[in-house]
Automatic annotation (TrEMBL):
This is histidine kinase. The keyword Transferase applies. Residues 41-265 form the Histidine kinase domain. It catalyses: ATP + protein L-histidine = ADP + protein N-phospho-L-histidine. It is an enzyme of class 2 (transferase). It comes from the Bacteria. GO terms for molecular function: ATP binding. The chain holds residues 79 to 343 of 343 of the full protein.
Length: 265
């Protein structure tokens, strides 16, 4: 039940009469609107830390000039805000790079098992900081697919970091690799990677929207945890580029499972 927008053009015909052409421009309108929304969102996201930075610089030049304790505290906040802007710009760049290459099939032969294990090893210290553990579940045999290793690594980082951010504090996060002889929607052999947390779970009404840019269930929590709101949008585009499938399942009070399936050939 969506509305249709028409562009109407009328031109006089030689023998009298008028030719009226209705052109359905609904998609163009939607694309234009989405671009405008995106630019407005990005501007807002960048302006928030910038406003804070400008405010603190003013204070440091004025009232707090001779207050060493306040200076140290303000510099900490300024560092955090600058780092937030840095992450946002990095995520925006990733997103635009992934989108630009979305039609170019990855060509590198990659061992998914090794890649996933490397991602887990890289994130163990962050998990340990929060008292959480990362558990690998799967066989130790190599599984080769055609992929862009940096992008699949980024997918793993985004999903595991989310599981740590939104999962129950101090809990276990499981990363499982399963080979599927035939994935129904990919119509062939596939490798599935699940990232499973034991957090609060996600209300079903949010699930379809989680991969939208800047969509957050709890704005405050995401920002507090240093989120940019772009992580799952990036995941979705990378999985699309690999002709894969991305699924989110969740149960309130039990936890969530973020799965990607990638074609093996
Ligand atoms: P963010 O930077 O806010 O984490 P993402 O695109 O990675 O952005 O995720 C979007 C939103 O999806 C998050 O703000 C959070 O509300 C929700 N979300 C993501 N992963 C999980 C998870 N494992 N459990 C519960 N909610 C999650």
């Amino acid at each position: 039940s969506r509305e249709t927008t028409y562009r109407v053009q009328a031109s006089p015909l030689e023998g009298g009469g008028v030719l009226v052409v209705f052109e359905d421009i609904t998609d163009m309108e939607t694309a234009g609107q989405m671009r405008r929304d995106f630019v407005a969102n990005v501007s807002h996201e960048l302006r928030t830390p910038l406003t804070a930075l400008i405010g603190f610089i003013e204070t440091l030049k004025g009232a707090a000039r001779d207050d060493a304790a306040a200076r140290a505290r303000f510099l900490d906040i300024m560092e955090r805000e600058a780092m937030r802007m840095n992450r946002l710009v990095a995520d925006l760049l990733s997103l635009s790079r992934v989108e630009a290459a979305e039609r170019v099939r990855p060509t590198e032969t990659v061992d998914v098992t090794a890649l996933v294990k490397a991602a887990i090893a890289a994130l163990r210290p962050i998990a340990a900081d929060q008292g959480a553990t990362l558990e690998f579940r799967g066989e130790d045999t190599p599984i080769e697919i055609l992929a862009d290793p940096d992008q699949i690594t980024q997918v793993m980082h985004n999903l595991i970091e989310n599981a740590l951010k939104y999962g129950a504090p101090g809990e276990k996060v499981t990363i499982a690799i399963t080979r599927e002889a035939r994935d129904v929607s990919l119509r062939g052999p596939a490798v599935r990677i699940d990232v499973i947390d034991r957090g609060d779970g996600i209300d079903p009404i949010h699930i379809p929207r989680l991969t939208e840019r800047f969509y957050r269930i709890d704005d405050h929590r995401s920002r507090e945890k240093g989120g940019t709101g772009l992580g799952l949008a990036i995941v979705k585009h990378i999985v699309n580029r690999h002709r894969g499938r991305f699924r989110i399942e969740s149960e309130r009070g039990v936890g969530s499972r973020f799965s990607i399936s990638l074609p093996e050939r």
